[in-house]
What we know:
By secondary structure, the protein is mainly alpha-helical. It is about 75% helix and about 0% strand. The longest helix has 19 residues.
Amino acid sequence: TQDLAARAYVACNLSSVQAVNGDFAAASDSALRGLRILGDGSGQVSTRIACLQNGEWVARESGDTRLSLERIELALQLNKQLPVPDLMSLHDTVGHAAMAYLFAGQIEKAVRNFEQSAVLLASLHMGNTASADVMSSNWASLCFYVGRPLEGMALARRARQIRNSGNGDAPDAVPGFAF
């Protein structure tokens, strides 16, 4: 079972590397291979969630919104099945969900997931980290897009504050999000 989880984890992470390099066909194949290795059984739930997160990102980046949503919604369901709650896994999944819903044009769901992501980051004492910076920047872009400029400005300021805090975990620059 451990061997299967390791093989699946490698295949799913390989899919991310392939997508970054622009080979979306290979990335989709690797993500699917990782999920098939795990099967639909109840074992290796954490690894399955991580694979679904990678698979969601690959599908979103390749323009397959339907598959992106399908994978992240399954990951959200699986988070509820973990034998021990894992707030970090839930935060990662909710962050992926926010972006998946945003790209699918499901703005209300995207906003709810960004809000949940912020709450989870605070509960994890990660409010001043690179994760908070990226989340705030992406959420700010959404707010500007949907006509909530004051909220967007506050989030953008928060992201800049984190970035300029000197915290070693805060990134030097955050990739922009274009609509």
